[in-house]
C-alpha cells in the first residue's frame, strides 16, 4: 500500500495556529491526577430492548457489560490505584475528518504518560489501511506538537471507514498481535464504532489480548443517545457553517435579487442543519426527518418552496435563503425508493452505465424526469456502508432547478406576478470540516482521549468513552464508559410498531427528534423566519478574548432533555427537597426554584409525581 509521505511530519504553523497549539484544554477533576476510582454501574441491555436477543447472539462476549464511571478518588479510597504498569496502545482515524480529532490522540498520550512514562502510543498512518498493513508512527511530544488543537486528520491521515470484512478484521487482529497491543482506540462515527464493537467481539472470541475502545468523533452529531450527548467536531462545524450561512443571508438582503439554496453536511441526520438554522435564522429550512415523517414528495416540497417565494414577493422581497440537510434527498419517499433500486444494482455488481436500463418502469420514469447532473450523481459508486454518496448529490441544485421551472410556469399561467426567480447554490461541507476546532471540541476530544486510556487501563473491552453534563464548564463534566452493544439496534423495514427487526445489529445514526425542544423552537419561528428576514449573525469562532464564551455550546446540546441522566435529576431533586420544607413561604420557594436553571423542565419531563407535589406554586 502507498502512504502519503507527508503524514505525521512536522509542519509550519501560522501565528494563529501556533497560539492555538499552546491552548491547554481543561480536565474535569476526576481525570486530573494519577489515581482514579473506577465504579461499575448496572449491567446494560440495548437502547431498543426488542433487539436485545439479536444483539446478544451476535455479541455473546461483549453484550450486557456494566456502565462504568470514572471518579475522583476519596482520600482513603482503597480502590484508587496509584501504581500503573506500562501499556501499549494503538490509535486509528477510521471515520471522516472532524475538527478536534487530533486532540483525542493528545488526550490518550497525556493520560498514558501521566500514569507511566514507559507506556507507548502508536498511531496508524493512513487510517484503517495503515492498521491492516501495520504502518505505525510512535507518538511523542515532539511529533504531537504541531497537531495540538489543530483541524483536519492530517497527523495520521485516514482512508476507508470500514473494518468489517473478514479479511480486514483478520488483518487488524494480526497487526494488534504483532505489535503486542493492550488496546486499540478507534476514532469515528456510527459506522466506525459499530466496527469497533465487532472487532472487540472477535478479539475476545480469539483470546486476542487487545481491548477495543471507540470514541464518538463525527461532524454529523448523529451519534447521540441517552449516553452520548454529542460528537467531537459537531460544535465547530455548526459554528463555522452558521457563520457562512449568516454571511449569505446578509449578502442576500443587501442585493435583494437572489434566492440562495444552501445544503449543509450531516449525512443521514439533520442535526447540523437544525443547529445552523437556529443560529443563523434563514428564511426556509427543510430537514430530512420532517420530510420522511410527513412523506412529502418532491413535487410537494417544490410547491411549498414556491409558495414561500410567492408570499415573499407579495411583500416585494425577491431574495431569500433556504437551508437543507445533506440527507434530504434520501428522505423523499420516491427518491429513497429510486436510490434503493440503484444500491441493489450496485451491490449486484451491475456496471454504472448499465444501471439505468435495469431500473423498474416507475423508477425509470422518475430517473428520466430528473435533470442529467442529478442522474449522474445518483449513479456514483457507493459509500463504504453501501449507501449513496450523499455529499456528491447536489440536492440544492435539484431544488433550485425545479423551483425555477415551477415559478416560470406559475408566471406564465398568471398565478405569480413578480420578478423572475433567480438562484445561487452552495454546499457547505468540506470548508467547515477542515476548520480549527472550537475550544469546546478541543476540550471534549482531549477529555475523551483521557477516558479511553482509563477504559484500557481498567482492562475493559468493547466500550465507548463518553462525558456528560457538557453544557456546564469542563470541571463539572462526568466521565464514563458505555458498552458499544448498549447503543445498538436492528433496523425494521417498516415503521409500524409490530414490524420485525431485520439485519445486523449496529449503532444507527440518531435522527433529529421531531418531538424535541430544538425542533419545536424552529417550527414556532418558521413563519417569521419566512417573511420577516430575522437573519442572525452569530459570527466566527472566537478562541479567546471578549466574545469567547458568548456561545459556549451548540443550542441543540444545551436544550437536550435530560432523559436518562438520572444523576442530574437526582441532584436537582435533592436541591428542591432541601427547599421544600414545611413552613417554607411561597415567596422563598418561588424565588429559589426560579434561580435553578432547568429545574422546572427536568421535573416536568422526568418526575411528574414529584412535580405534582408542588401544585400551589406557579412554576411557569
Ligand atoms: O466526501 P467524503 O469525504 O467521502 O465524505 C462525505 C461524508 O462524510 C461526512 O462529512 C461525515 O460523515 C458526511 O456528512 C458526508 O456525506
Automatic annotation (TrEMBL):
Kindly state a single biological-process term from the GO annotations of this entry. photosynthesis
The molecular function terms of the Gene Ontology recorded here are:
6-phosphofructokinase activity; ATP binding; diphosphate-fructose-6-phosphate 1-phosphotransferase activity; metal ion binding
Q: Where is the signal peptide?
A: none
Q: How is its activity regulated?
A: Allosterically activated by fructose 2,6-bisphosphate.
Pathway per the UniProt entry? Carbohydrate degradation; glycolysis; D-glyceraldehyde 3-phosphate and glycerone phosphate from D-glucose: step 3/4
Q: Which family does it belong to?
A: Belongs to the phosphofructokinase type A (PFKA) family. PPi-dependent PFK group II subfamily. Clade 'Long' sub-subfamily.
HAMAP family the UniProt entry points to: Phosphofructokinase_II_Long
Q: What is this protein called?
A: Pyrophosphate--fructose 6-phosphate 1-phosphotransferase subunit alpha
Organism expressing this protein natively: Oryza sativa subsp. japonica
Q: Which gene encodes it?
A: PFP-ALPHA
